[in-house]
Amino acid sequence: MVKKNQTLGEFIIENQEAFKYSSGELSRLINSIRLAAKVVNHEVNKAGLVDITGAVGETNVQGEEQQKLDVYANEKFIQTLTNREIVCGIASEEEDDFITICGQKENHQNKYVVLIDPLDGSSNIDVNVSVGTIFSVYRRKTKIGTPVTLEDFLQPGNAQVAAGYIVYGTSTMLVYTTGHGVNGFTLNPAIGTYYLSHPNMKFPEKGNIYSINEGNYLQFPQGVKDYLKYCQAEEGDRPYTSRYIGSLVSDIHRNILKGGIYIYPSTSKNPKGKLRLLYECNPMAYLVEQAGGKASDGYQRIMDIKPSSLHERVPFFAGTTSMVEDAEKFMEKYK
Ligand code: AHM
Ligand code: MG
User: Fold this and answer.
1) Distance between alpha carbon 58 and the CA centroid of its chain, in Å?
2) Is the pTM of this model over 0.90?
3) How far is the CA of 159 from the centre of ligand 2 (A)?
4) How far is residue 197's CA from residue 201's CA, in Å, rounded to a whole number?
5) Of 29, 112, 327, 329, whose CB neighbour count within 10 A is largest?
6) How far is the CA of 248 from the centre of ligand 1 (A)?
7) Taking all residues of the chain, what is their mean pLDDT, rounded to a whole number?
8) Integer Cα distance of 9 and 196 in angstroms
9) How far is the CA of 121 from the centre of ligand 2 (A)?
10) CA of 265 relative to ligand 2 center, distance in Å
11) Nearest ligand, CA of residue 131?
12) What is the rounded CA–CA span in Å between residue 53 and residue 319?
């Protein structure tokens, strides 16, 4: 039931029983993400004011230049989750390897691992365009009380127990699912409280937005090229509208609310696309499906892919179900 002026804290407590394997641990986990997100939000919002933007001079594991705020967000989320001893392991897009928490201390009974992209869309930071945080939660596979192993992180998306994103946009929102629909909470920055502003988010049945970096057009597979021509054709409810922010969180957020498809396909330069299966595609796929949409790699369901490494990439098609299905039909022709 949706209550007026319900805060995220109240919502978490009220819905605790609905969580799988409920023990309060997952609630505490969402709570600490909420807290870290506030701290990061504060920093992101003053990015233009202080000397905090710009590259820090290091490259991350994918060989990309890191921005200072990436580093800051990474530290904050890891610190919050580690200090509060809520999870037994963390993997971050910004870290080469996973971090073991369980095993450092005796009697550590935590059963969840978190995978996180602390600040996605970082090329947008310097120009005051929305960025986001993406997180994904799994129950560990290995025995409770022992140090986590790679096996605990390389689980298919269909094993997620929770996933969400924070969008640092014109307002800051935390949107998450635990498998019972998607709910969005907007931060009131004056008092630091998130309120349930978007209960039970669902894609409209039809969409008319397509989001893709068309600068790479010549490198796209023929199926994607043909689908784009289809989107642009003057027929029926087309042409569709092109909208691409270049921040996955914001592009997906807008498309859930307005109806649309997001595509980051394979390209001749990057045959596996750009986005990471574990930190970006799986959590987004879970949210998209919970909002009534569909997410695939062009041929198969994203959440059924068995990951083989922490930082692997995958082509990504996500959005309004009928639009993703149309795109898949074009892909199928050239399989
Ligand atoms: P990042 O994790 O390095 O920030 O990269 C991910 C971002 C997504 O948010 C966005 O959708 C995509 O990269 C944009 O890539 P491109 O600039 O190639 O269009
Ligand atoms: Mg990212």
Assistant:
1) 24
2) yes
3) 21
4) 10
5) 327
6) 6
7) 91
8) 10
9) 6
10) 15
11) 1
12) 32
Q: Is the dihedral of CA 331, 216, 134, 183 positive or negative?
A: negative
Closest approach atom of ligand 1 to CA 249: 9
- pLDDT number for residue 228: 98
Pairwise pLDDT comparison (56 vs 96), residue with the higher score: 96
- Give the tokens for residue 44: 């992101």
Nearest ligand to the C-alpha atom of residue 247 = 1
C-alpha 93 to ligand 1 mean position (Å): 12
Q: Which atom of ligand 1 is nearest to the CA of 132?
A: 9
* Distance separating alpha carbons of residues 274 and 264, to the nearest angstrom: 7
Ligand 1 binding site (Cβ under 6 Å of any ligand atom): 64, 117, 120-122, 213, 246-248, 251, 274
The closest ligand to the CA of 133 turns out to be 2
Q: Alpha-carbon distance 152 to 154, whole Å? A: 6
> Phi-psi bin for 236: left (phi > 0), alpha (psi -120 to 50), beta?
left
Nearest CA to ligand 1 atom 7: 121
pLDDT-derived band at 24 (thresholds 50, 70, 90) equals confident
State the closest ligand 1 atom to the C-alpha of 62, by its place in the atom list counted from 1. 3
Mean pLDDT for the stretch of residues 228-237 = 97
CATH class of 209-332: alpha beta
d(CA 160, CA 331): 27
Tens digit of pLDDT for each residue in 248-285? Answer: 999 999 999 999 999 999 999 999 999 999 999 999 99
Closest ligand, as measured to the CA of 64: 1
Q: Which CATH number fits domain 8-198: 3.30.540.10, 3.50.50.60, 2.40.160.50, 1.25.40.340?
A: 3.30.540.10
The residue among 45, 333, 22, 20 whose CA lies nearest residue 187 is 45
Q: Which sequence spans correspond to the domains of the chain?
A: 8-198, 209-332
- What is the Cα–Cα distance from 7 to 30, expressed in whole angstroms? 13
Cβ pair 145, 274 in contact under 8 A: no
Helix (H, G, I), strand (E, B) or coil at 162: strand
